[in-house]
Design goal:
heterotrimer, A alpha/beta (831), B alpha+beta (122), C mainly beta (53), B: 122 residues, alpha+beta, three-stranded antiparallel sheet, 2 helices, C: 53 residues, mainly beta
Chain lengths: 831, 122, 53
């Protein structure tokens, strides 16, 4: 009834009420409407998967069968054979009205389960409510048997056995960081330059592999010597790459065959028959050959993503779709006029929906930290070409328009702003934000290009190709720049730095001596002693996480193996090495810093109330913290009211800068396996909620259990009291090139204030101030409290409201109540 | 015992259960007095596969032994599983409230979201 | 019934002993055709959705 009533309302009326989701339904094509509603959302609701979503058991069984059969093969070859077996035998499907195909599971409602990643995740899956396919008992038996076969054999099991046991235990406590040090739960950039810019289809790559094999065999069948010894293993790797590419081509042809079968035997609608034939022709052409049309270009990209995910889950989706698909879009829409712009929008919208539906089974900490989504699919739009000229084009605009029609939470966009972006593009960007999508986030392209050159030495032309490796961090898409393994386990729960400095390294929540013993804080004579303790805890925490990640990366070719990814990387095809091998990669690591601002706010409060004003002793404070402020509400409020970040107050802002510069110094002392640096990147996703009961009471006034701050360098909710310019000025004191990798800033804006042309001009002025201050990132929520509270009361009516959580967007109804309240608490800035 | 050996002992106790192959029956069973039902059990924040730490007992304890071994001094809490039988544990104290709702990102101190715990919540 | 007796079985030209078995599914959100390779001589399981063209 409600839906029928909405269909009668005009777009103008719906705009006045800001009910953007009803407008989207009116404006999108019947096909997009069907496909959008057809999606089984894989993002967890809080921490649980939605009813009806089940884990796929076919793929793990196929994989295990073949992996065990070839147990004497080297890792890459063994994995290639097992994955080829999956691709040849898994169930595939084509959804009605679809023009693009490919999915990571065997039916639309299934989650991919990467069984060889981590035993603990496998056990979690066994215990997970609601995800076992029917009949449940048979599925439980199957999972129990599979888990028994893999117990102790997964990639994380193997890393844990050689990791320093102290590091392993402390990492496993879950207190100091998250992620799993294996490709199975990591994410990889794609060498788009190799695949798209150089126009290599899989048969072209196989030709290159054959050439490499021939050259290597000339040597291995020639004069013996130590220099030919490494080639034996590389020959096996090349065999593996070839094998998986051939299997991938067969996989695509299976879709082509199914499409033809449907067209010839089942479909009666002549228009749909034609579409199916075109779909078949598309899948017969790509990925074997380079694309010739927009449909083929998007399909090729989607196949690469699906195939990489079947190999290794992939928790992010680095992509630059407007840049790499522009040649085929331009050819089809503008030059040869093969399709209309509306038809192109349909394809672009469906391309986003195909990404949205992708999901794998993730451990609970990942679900809680990424509520509502299964990974951060942050697609990069805009920016510059390699020669520095504006790269925005009509496909940039098409993606922004399609986003407003399909309203998916994932992919989300990040827009590379630079001073030459045309006004009409900026308007389209603003419209997405105004429509409450929470994206695009805005990235300062000149700053981030410099940043990439500063921290990792990427040459200018390569730095200009950058995409978001995950939510925030730039990474080139080039031969030596592309990053094959970014594991989230260099993700630090930074609030523990100040917590451990206060408690001599002891963690009262997990009941363990975690950090080094930096002294009884009650005996610190001045702030400098306290700060010195903080520095030691910071160094210890970052060292522990980075050691774990480095080892996982270094051993990944042996403990896991990535034949498909390697086959799509130019440097791996040339060298015969696993793409994950550090050899040939420049290095692009960073430490994600969750719960970062709590440090500056807590340090400032201690400096003010304990050391400067001497209102409380450190002993009193420590006692209050250990008892969670019980019976000391007045004292707690004093600490809440102490100087806070985000108010353009040098008292606390200087402390923030000191903290960042200590980490920046240390970032150059710790190295990744490629020998490059590990700069800090403060941001949160919904880690601030996940960690809320893991971080103890702190001197910024928080209690154990309170939500932590929401992101990066965003001030605590409600603690920014001097308006948006003060926030920007605080953030502008940071050197966004030299002080860290990037810095997330959440801002909430008023949809009423930003209505119409006046709203757009206000927002543009805000962006100018932001850019002038040299900030690298900002993202916006533009949804009223009224709408959000209504959505809490009546979630059924507000299923499509999207909010910006942190480095990503989610449907409001898919996040926990605590996270919802945390977003509502964020200050609405009047600009 | 050197640093490495000490931590190896802890690591093995954290990993031991999880790498053991168990039948469906062993996995499904939640004894009437189980660690997951005890006030002193805190679910691990990293691996939500049902493992956790005891807030009272420390590494070196063994509640399955006959007689059970209770070590309360030490730096590291005893790793245990949500469905470990705690009938013989002198420190077992049944929790008044268990939250089995996995949608709310609740405190691991009282959240038990394993399928086997359905019906045991209040 | 064996797969080869079903109208929804499509043998591979290069190996007629194997082929694709097509099923039609209408789930709570979408309708789709799905397929997987099977042996012509195997029995169709009861859980399969054998449907009319």
């Amino acid at each position: 009834m409600a839906q029928a009533a909405k269909i009668q309302e005009s777009i103008e009326d719906l705009e006045k009420k800001q009910e953007w989701w009803w407008i989207a339904e009116k404006k999108r094509s019947k096909r997009l409407d069907y496909l959008r509603k057809a999606v089984w959302k894989k993002g967890a609701i809080g921490g649980n998967y939605a009813p009806g979503v089940k884990v796929d058991l076919e793929i793990p069984v196929l994989f295990t069968q073949m992996y065990n059969w070839w147990k004497f093969d080297p890792p890459m070859l063994r994995r290639a054979k097992a994955n080829a077996h999956i691709l040849d035998n898994m169930t595939i499907f084509i959804t009605d009205h679809a023009q693009l195909v490919g999915y990571v599971g065997t039916t639309p409602n299934t989650l991919l389960w990467r069984i060889d990643g981590a035993s603990m995740v496998n056990e979690e899956l066994y215990n997970e409510p609601g995800v076992m396919p029917e009949p449940e008992q048979a599925s439980l038996k199957k999972v129990a048997d599979l888990n028994a076969a893999w117990a102790g054999q997964t990639a994380v099991d193997k890393v844990a056995r050689i990791l320093d046991p102290e590091d392993a235990v402390k990492f496993l406590s879950g207190a100091i960081g998250w992620g799993a040090p294996t490709s199975a739960y990591g994410y990889s950039g794609k060498d788009y330059e190799f695949l798209f810019a150089q126009r290599n289809g899989f048969l072209d790559i196989i030709e290159k592999i054959d050439e490499a094999i021939e050259k290597a065999e000339d040597r291995t069948m020639g004069a013996p010597g130590p220099d030919i010894l490494p080639l034996y293993e590389r020959l096996q790797n090349w065999d593996a790459m070839k094998m998986i590419l051939e299997a991938s081509i067969r996989y695509a042809n299976r879709y082509a065959r199914l499409a033809r079968i449907i067209a010839e035997n089942y479909e009666t609608d002549p228009t749909r028959k034609e579409e199916l034939i075109r779909l078949a022709e598309t899948c017969e052409h790509v990925p074997a050959h380079a694309p010739r049309s927009l449909q083929e270009s998007l399909q090729y990209d989607h196949f690469v993503q699906v195939l990489a995910r079947i190999e290794a889950l992939e928790g992010a989706w680095p992509a630059r779709p407007d840049y790499y698909h522009w040649p085929m879009y331009h050819k089809d829409v503008n030059v040869e006029k093969n399709i209309t712009r509306e038809e192109a929008l349909d394809l672009v919208g469906e391309f986003m929906i195909r990404a949205y539906e992708v999901g794998g089974f993730g451990p609970r900490w990942a679900r809680e930290g990424l509520q509502g989504i299964t990974g951060t699919w942050v697609w990069t739009l805009g920016g510059v070409n390699k020669d520095g000229t504006d790269a925005c084009n009509d496909l940039t605009v098409a993606f922004l328009q399609a986003a407003r029609m399909v309203r998916v939470a994932n992919p989300t966009f990040a827009f590379r702003w630079h001073p030459k972006v045309a006004d009409d593009v900026m308007r389209e960007v603003f419209e997405c934000i105004r429509h409450g999508l929470g994206y695009p986030s805005i990235r300062n392209d000149p700053v981030l290009i410099q940043n990439a050159m500063h921290w990792h030495g990427h040459p200018l032309e390569e730095a200009r190709t950058w995409v978001h490796q995950a939510c925030m961090s730039p990474c080139p898409t080039t031969k030596h720049g592309v990053q094959p393994m970014r594991m989230a386990s260099a993700t630090a729960n930074c609030a523990k730095m100040v917590e451990y400095a206060l408690h001599n390294g002891y963690d009262f929540v997990v009941q363990m001596q975690m950090g080094p013993k930096t002294g009884d804080a009650a005996k610190f004579k001045d702030f400098e002693e306290f700060f010195a303790a903080w520095v030691k805890q910071m160094e210890w925490l970052t060292n522990t996480l980075v050691r774990t990640v480095n080892l996982g990366r270094y051993k990944d070719p042996e403990f896991f193996g990535r034949p498909f990814l390697s086959a799509t990387y130019e440097r791996a095809v040339e060298s015969g090495l696993d793409a994950v091998s550090p050899v040939g990669e420049r290095g692009n690591c960073w430490i994600t810093g969750f719960t970062w601002v709590e440090n500056a706010d807590s340090l400032a409060a201690v400096k003010k109330l304990v050391f400067d004003d001497k209102k409380y002793t450190m002993a009193e404070l420590l006692d209050a913290l250990r008892t969670n402020w019980e019976g000391r509400e007045d004292m707690r409020l004093d600490f809440v009211k102490a100087p806070k970040w985000g108010n353009d107050d040098d008292y606390v802002d200087d402390i923030m800068l000191r903290c960042l510069r200590e980490v920046a110094r240390h970032s150059r002392e710790i190295q990744c396996p490629c020998g490059n640096t590990w700069p800090l990147l403060p941001e949160n996703v919904s880690g601030n909620i996940h960690y809320s009961s893991i971080v103890g009471a702190l001197p910024n006034g928080r209690r154990l259990g309170d939500a932590l701050y929401d992101g990066g360098i965003s001030p605590g909710p409600g603690l920014d009291k001097k308006g948006p310019t003060a926030v920007l000025k605080s953030c502008g004191k940071i050197d966004h090139v030299g002080d860290g990798r990037a810095f997330l800033l959440n801002q909430r804006l008023s949809p009423t204030q930003l209505a119409g042309e006046k709203g757009y001009q206000l927002w543009k002025a805000y962006i100018k101030t932001w850019a002038d201050l040299g900030l690298d990132h900002v993202q916006f929520n533009m949804v009223s409290d009224e709408t959000l509270r209504a959505a809490q009361r009546d979630p059924e009516k507000y299923q499509e409201v999207i909010v910006r959580v942190a480095g990503y967007s989610a449907h409001f109804v898919d996040i926990s109540r605590k996270t919802q309240d945390n977003i509502i608490q964020r200050t609405i800035q009047g600009i | 015992m050197g640093r490495r050996d000490e931590w190896k002992q802890v690591q093995n106790s954290m990993y031991g259960e999880i790498t053991k192959a168990r039948s469906v029956e062993e996995r499904e069973k939640v004894p009437d007095a189980a660690c997951g039902l005890c006030k002193n059990f805190a679910e691990n924040a990293y691996a939500s596969d049902g493992r956790g730490l005891c807030k009272i007992l420390k590494v070196g304890s063994n509640i399955a032994a006959d007689p059970p071994v209770f070590v309360t001094a030490g730096e590291v809490g005893l790793p245990t599983m949500f469905n470990t039988d705690a009938a013989a544990c002198a420190h077992y104290a049944k929790m008044d409230f268990i939250d089995t709702d996995g949608t709310e990102v609740a405190d691991p101190g009282y959240r038990r979201v394993q399928r086997q715990m359905e019906g045991k919540g209040k | 019934m064996k797969y080869k007796e079903s109208k929804n079985f499509f043998p591979y030209p290069e190996n007629p002993q194997r082929g694709d078995y097509v099923e039609r599914v209408v789930d709570p959100r979408q309708a789709y055709y799905k397929v997987k390779p099977v042996n012509a001589e195997d029995e169709i399981p009861e859980s399969a959705s054998e449907f009319q063209k």
